[in-house]
Amino acid sequence: MAAEVVAEWTEMLTTQAVPNVTFGIGDVTEREPGLDRRPASWVFMVFTGACLALAVFILVCNTVFIAACWKTRSLRTISMLYVISLAGSDMLQGVGMILQAFFYANEWVGFVMWTDFLCPWIIAIFLTCVPISILNVAFIAFDRYVYIVFPYRYPALVTAKRSKVIIAFTWLVWLSFGFSILNQPKESSDCRIRTMVRVSYIWIRFVVFFLSVAVSGFCHVSIQLTALKHIRQVGSYLNNLDKKK
Questions:
Q1: Cα four-point dihedral sign 157, 160, 161, 162
Q2: 0.85 cut: is pTM over it?
Q3: pLDDT at residue 46, as a whole number
Q4: H-helix or E-strand containing 28?
Q5: What is the separation, in whole angstroms, between the first and last Cα of the chain?
């Protein structure tokens, strides 16, 4: 999820510091008259290093985790399928962070690396992996909710086949959704998500985010209430035993 925070910083920095930019190969950077207020080169150097460091950290950690799950039989549980899917989406975000670093490098190296070809690809990656990550978090919360609140019905309700179908369907839908922007005509010369994609894309992303947060919140609150209920029941049972003695 850390990659999502950096992506938001990227959007803000691009919007405020680099208005009306053309990123085609060999193009000259054009800015609006009177808007030459840009961060110093060292700021872009820091962001380049941060993106690369974060990308390496995300890729290495998630690769180790997936390898551990692959080699350890005890980790191949149904609930871990959603965690592995979350790790996969984080790895895709790590690839996006590497591409993101090219944007910042362009600002201090002085060579145009951010091309018209690369721009829609990086936006497509973040449009794809961010909703998948958020949905996987909601799936994990719902899985734990069913396991704790309905323990006897859990084996029948949550099966490996159903979980794999849900994960595959989620990836298929959002890969189609995110990378569909590669086929739409480019209506602007800059590389901001607000101008690269239709408004409907952004609204769908927000709706998925809020629904996932609502589901996760409901599941976690229900789990906490169930845990408190069980604590009270155990406490009452122990008190009754003490009274009988």
A1: positive
A2: no
A3: 82
A4: none
A5: 54
